[in-house]
Amino acid sequence: MTPKLPRPRTDRAFRRHPVLFPLFLVALLAVVWFGIKATQDLMAAKTRFSADPEIAGWMTPGYIARTWNIPPEVLLDTLSLTEQPRKRMTISEIALDKGLTPPDYAAEVEAALDAWVAANR
């Protein structure tokens, strides 16, 4: 006579806890699912934030210098400013002071910064 093989532990757990065991499996699947999604988002964020951002009207010269990793003096030359603008002056305000539209000025600044980055990096 051959000995009886013991039942797997999962079978015993299912018989003991017929409601909790399926809930545990659902929770385990949820952890795996959200872990995969979080990893995908992390990988996408690396590529999304690796490039220099577009210049927008709300940005200040100091913010642009930090995000583009450009010395402030170079940025002032790029913005065609002889002196540091007043604190927290945005690109839109600088453009209006120069008599330009903010989107046109932002595009002009971005083109100049792209040229500087291509020449110096």
Attribute tags:
mainly alpha; 121 residues; 2 domains; single chain
Notes on the structure:
By secondary structure, the protein is mainly α. The chain has two domains: 40 residues; 60 residues, no CATH class.
Explain briefly what this protein structure is.
By secondary structure, this protein is mostly helical. The protein is built from 6 helices and no strands. α5 crosses α6.
Q: Which H/E pattern describes the elements? A: HHHHHH
Content of β-strand: under 5%
Task: Report low-confidence residues grouped into runs of 5 or more.
Answer: none
- Counting DSSP E segments of at least 2 residues, the number of strands comes to 0
Mean pLDDT, nearest integer? 83
Helix percent band: 55-70%
Q: Quickly give the structural class.
A: mainly alpha
> Could you give a short account of the major beta sheet?
none
Work out the helix count.
6
Overall 3D shape: rod-shaped
How far the N terminus sits from the C terminus, by CA atoms, comes to 80 Å
Gyration radius, in Å:
29 Å
Number of domains: 2
Secondary-structure blueprint of this entry?
Elements: H1 9-16, H2 20-48, H3 61-68, H4 72-78, H5 91-98, H6 102-120
Helix pairs in contact: 5-6
